[in-house]
């Protein structure tokens, strides 16, 4: 690099790196392509976002479709002083100390979180980040009586079977998390688990607790069956922004994660991201970078690359937070806009041997966000002058320089370590940046109508299956292609869907089989 260019780069780094000195959290925007004039042009959007963030925090309705307030920013400040917080701590302590046990009196050793989307991703991220991937009796948390954490976050019999193999029902607590209390995947796992307990002649309610909205189907079910505990979830906190609420708290308290410290981190970031000057406000700047890079239309993908194995789940977490919030068909004025921002990622170092080839040489359709964790867990010498950590740092800086050399765009976040505080800061930063960006592009970040339509479509498929199966049972034995069977079942226009359900049935139901006909390139099904 020529000296004058180098000077520009250094100056740009100084000007566009924001630092919170006390926590040592920094975010560097110098590697993004933007000019002061482009930031100036965003002034009206900054003003609108600041005004609307004020309205959110003042408790006004900010989710117009669902007519709901949006309280995750404001609630977490007062949550530690609430009765709910105290009751979670008391419950977790009784479980940890063995005062609350399972039906047979044995101490709980594990907890299964059964939830999906926002009711699982935050607890998963937090567990992996703080307690790490390997739980055994030698870890501090285990020695102190905290519980090992498992997840059920789909409706996949393989996931359930894998868990059943390692789980001891007598010493396992089941925490069913569902804000709406009616999400089918979660309900399916709950029903399957209730069956498993009944088959072992154990009481499921004596091993179960729930987090849900008051009056939901799950709330009624759990209270009606006398579960160990039911914790209320606020209507005004959306699933994807619920990690700083009861949803994050209960799993954390049961597994020895310092949730109070996590909230401190989130509140610290909330303070910082209320800074009036947008150029000094990390969330305003982050949203501005996304906006300028993607021309306000999400034309660049957000690639999240933490250089830390403990943060491997961050990109999955961000995927829901960003894409479920910003991926919208209509704007607030009802215009079709098809907005969104793609998020993908994994972990740095390892990624160099996966998608970095394309980022370096291929399509220039992204901006990378690197997250460096400065403190090494251990000093592991490799040569006289290097160790494991210096290599990871070298790979990050090397990749950064290579990408910059190709004109690719980069944001770099640096944190001293991964503890509860930094995790709280990271999550709160992205939550606010998402809410601000939504104001920039005039959309509602707090609803998810697209997910509803997929759920309805799935219900339609299940209804079709019932109809076809009932008809086939009535016909009492039939052989034919999907087209022929759909015809006989009275739904000729649904032959593709009928074929798909017969494929599934042929592998799972003894009464259905199939043979492939090379000549017609179709399966021929026999239903007994
Ligand atoms: O907590 P619930 O109501 O079970 O919902 C789970 C997830 O499903 C969604 O509603 C749709 O994906 C998410 O917003 C939410 O986090």
The side-by-side strand order for the widest beta sheet comes to 1-2-13-12-10-11
| Count of folded domains | 3
Share in β-strands? 5-15%
Low-confidence stretches: none
Family: Belongs to the GPI family.
Pathway: Carbohydrate biosynthesis; gluconeogenesis; Carbohydrate degradation; glycolysis; D-glyceraldehyde 3-phosphate and glycerone phosphate from D-glucose: step 2/4
Protein name: Glucose-6-phosphate isomerase
Function: Catalyzes the reversible isomerization of glucose-6-phosphate to fructose-6-phosphate.
Give a structural overview.
It is an enzyme of class 5 (isomerase). GO terms for molecular function: carbohydrate derivative binding; glucose-6-phosphate isomerase activity; monosaccharide binding. Its EC number is 5.3.1.9. The chain is of the alpha/beta class and 528 residues long. The chain has three domains: 1-55 and 273-442, Glucose-6-phosphate isomerase like protein, domain 1 (Rossmann fold, 3-Layer(aba) Sandwich), CATH 3.40.50; 69-256, Rossmann fold; 449-525, Arc Repressor Mutant, subunit A (Orthogonal Bundle). 47% of the residues lie in helices and 15% in strands. β8 (208-212), α10 (217-224) and β9 (229-232) form a beta-alpha-beta unit. It is globular. The structure holds 6-O-phosphono-beta-D-fructofuranose (F6P). 6-O-phosphono-beta-D-fructofuranose binds next to loops.
Lay out the secondary structure.
Blueprint: H1 3-15, E1 17-20, E2 25-28, H2 36-41, H3 43-57, E3 61-63, E4 68-69, H4 72-78, H5 83-97, E5 110-114, H6 121-131, H7 140-143, E6 148-152, H8 157-166, E7 172-177, H9 184-199, E8 208-212, H10 217-224, E9 229-232, H11 246-255, H12 259-272, H13 282-293, E10 301-307, H14 314-326, E11 343-345, H15 356-361, E12 366-373, H16 388-405, E13 409-415, H17 420-440, H18 449-475, E14 478-480, H19 482-488, H20 495-508, E15 512-517, E16 522-527
The chain binds 6-O-phosphono-beta-D-fructofuranose.
Protein name: Glucose-6-phosphate isomerase
Keywords: Cytoplasm, Gluconeogenesis, Glycolysis, Isomerase
Catalytic activity: alpha-D-glucose 6-phosphate = beta-D-fructose 6-phosphate
